[in-house]
Design goal:
This is Ubiquitin carboxyl-terminal hydrolase. It holds the Pfam family zf-UBP. GO terms for molecular function: cysteine-type deubiquitinase activity; zinc ion binding. Keywords: Hydrolase, Metal-binding, Protease, Thiol protease, Ubl conjugation pathway, Zinc, Zinc-finger. By secondary structure, this protein is an alpha+beta fold. It folds into two domains: 1-120, 2-Layer Sandwich (Herpes Virus-1); 122-179 and 198-514, Cathepsin B, Chain A, CATH 3.90.70. The protein contains 14 helices and 23 strands. It has helices at 17-24, 57-71, 76-85, 135-143, 154-164, 167-174, 201-213, 226-235, 247-264, 276-280, 297-302, 334-337, 352-360, 487-491, and strands at 31-33, 40-42, 47-49, 146-147, 222-223, 304-312, 318-325, 328-331, 350-351, 363-364, 371-373, 378-380, 382-390, 394-400, 402-405, 408-411, 416-417, 423-424, 445-455, 463-470, 473-478, 481-484, 495-502. The termini are far apart.
Length: 514
């Protein structure tokens, strides 16, 4: 849809009527919006538009389109024209260029390279608690800033705020030197695609985490992660557009991509530090860029090892396998949510230990998962069980709240109790193996660092926020808004992803080899 006149047409991969419309009316008819995924595109620049105008015109238009889609109106064309002709904030006169770029295989362009509208004026400082009491607390609150929502990007913001408040992870990126990409070849035709190996998610994440650690340079109310989002659009098509996405899927992509990129970088200048006393304690966190080294800061912090045990029910033969993990996805035991309608809210409370017990309990494999027994020389009925062979320094627990039910993905909106302090993982750790690393009970105690919460009923809708502890104070991050909350407020939320830090991690950090 043309954002100047409301003309609705097909993209260039159909019959290209939207492009022809832009070429016919050259003045101010270059910017259009995809009414399905709500992405904005500029034909003049041949690029996606990521940020918004100073008066949030694009967000206003997206909200109007969402309401029209939700209402299911059959008169969509007339409604779109009303949106364009109504007194909405102006968009056509606020275009400028930037060097950011993304690729696309959507109908809006073959190789758009991403420009943005003129940067909006920053809002006032992020939300803070009035009458904070002490000057020190006020200074601390000023350093904690939010992230702008670029259009349903709360899933990304909640993950970034959680990662930024995991000290060992953010410290690494704050000391990481800038990574320079290779010189790009000029485009001569649309068939020449940019080499995705030249794209560094690591570099854009480093910039965001550094800005968050500096509090937006002390004068910005919220940081805009546009460049990081552009790079993610480029390398992962599923995150393009402005639909809501799953925060856990984004977290897994981000960690996997960071690990891969850090392994691919072969050389980098050696990090020099002047404050040796402060940095010697974290010397293990400094980057290593050898291709022969299979570990990275991702596996150093989040990496653990599972041991799966499969036992044949006929001959009793047992097979063991070790697998690395970056997070644990935990099912909610069925008896908690299947009886939800018959129980009051207090009786329906599940504990995180119930989810962990369900993860590690013995289960009999179904007929479709029969195990090939090397002793019986055929597929047999068997049981399977998981143990945690090696715990990570930061334990990430993903609660599987979404289930497929009659072709619909529904949410289990059940309250799950979790400890703020002293999560003891000893009972879930394999501690009788000769190669089990540091399985003593005192080493298995964790304290909560961050929580991601999903608000709403469905995975493709709703809103994500996060809680994280910053300088000993719990903060609630809701996109650009940041405010101090109590530990009781955190404990009362309904978690989707939990980040726990090993209590002895600071004194015993070591680089695991998976």
């Amino acid at each position: 849809m043309c954002l100047n006149c409301g003309y609705v047409a097909c993209g260039r991969y159909d019959q290209g009527h939207a492009l022809k419309h832009s070429q016919k009316y050259s003045e101010c008819h270059d910017i259009c919006i995809n009414t399905n995924i709500l992405s904005v595109y500029c034909y003049k620049c041949d690029e996606f538009v990521i940020n918004d105008t100073s008066n949030n015109a694009l967000e206003w238009i997206r909200n109007e389109l969402r309401e029209d889609i939700n209402d299911g109106s059959s008169e969509s064309s007339s409604t779109l024209e009303e949106i364009s002709s109504s007194k909405s904030p102006s968009t056509s006169q606020e275009t400028a260029s930037t060097s950011s770029s993304i690729s696309s295989d959507s109908g809006w362009g073959d190789e758009p390279t991403g420009r943005k509208l003129r940067p909006r004026k920053r809002t006032t400082s992020c939300e803070s608690t009035e009458n904070t009491g002490t000057v020190a607390k006020k200074k601390m609150l000023k350093r904690v800033v939010g992230l702008r929502n670029l259009g349903n990007t709360c899933f990304m913001n909640s993950v970034l705020q959680s990662l930024s408040n995991i000290e060992e992870f953010s410290c690494y990126f704050n000391t990481l030197p800038a990574l320079e990409t290779k010189p790009k070849r000029p485009y001569h035709s649309r068939s020449m695609k940019e080499n995705l190996d030249d794209v560094f998610v690591v570099e854009e994440l480093r910039k965001v985490l550094y800005s968050l650690s500096k509090g937006g340079d002390g004068h910005k109310g919220a940081i805009s992660p546009e460049c990081l989002f552009l790079v993610i659009w480029k390398v992962v098509p599923q995150f393009r557009g402005h639909r809501q996405h799953d925060a856990h899927e984004f977290l897994r992509y981000m960690l996997d991509r960071l690990h891969t990129e850090l392994q691919q970088v072969s050389t980098v200048q050696e990090l020099h530090t002047t404050n040796s006393k402060d940095h010697n304690n974290k010397s293990q966190l400094l980057p290593t860029f050898s291709n022969k080294n299979r570990s990275s800061i991702v596996t150093n912090v989040f990496g653990g090892t599972l041991q799966s045990e499969v036992r044949c029910l006929i001959c009793g033969m047992e097979s063991k396998k070790h697998d690395p993990f970056l997070d644990l996805s935990l099912d909610i035991p069925e008896h908690f949510y299947k009886e939800m309608d018959n129980l009051d809210e207090k009786q329906r409370v599940c504990n995180i230990s119930d989810c962990l017990s369900s993860f590690t309990e013995v289960e009999e494999l179904t007929e479709t998962e029969l195990y090939y027994c090397n002793s019986c020389k055929c597929k047999q009925r068997s049981t399977k069980r998981f143990w945690i062979r090696r715990l990570p320094n930061v334990l990430c627990l993903h609660i599987k709240r979404f289930r497929w039910n009659n072709f619909f993905r529904t949410k289990i909106d059940l309250r799950i109790k979790f400890p703020i302090h002293s999560l003891d993982m000893s009972q879930f750790v394999l501690n009788n193996g000769p190669e089990t690393r540091r399985s003593n009970s005192s080493y298995n105690v964790y304290d909560l660092a961050a929580v991601i919460v999903h608000h709403g009923n469905g995975s493709s809708c709703g809103h994500y926020t996060s809680f994280a502890i910053n300088n000993g104070v719990w903060m609630h991050f809701n996109d650009h808004s940041v405010k101090e909350v109590s530990a009781e407020t955190v404990a009362d939320c309904k978690p989707y992803i939990l980040f726990y830090i090993r209590r002895e991690m600071n004194n015993s950090y070591s680089k695991p080899s998976l």
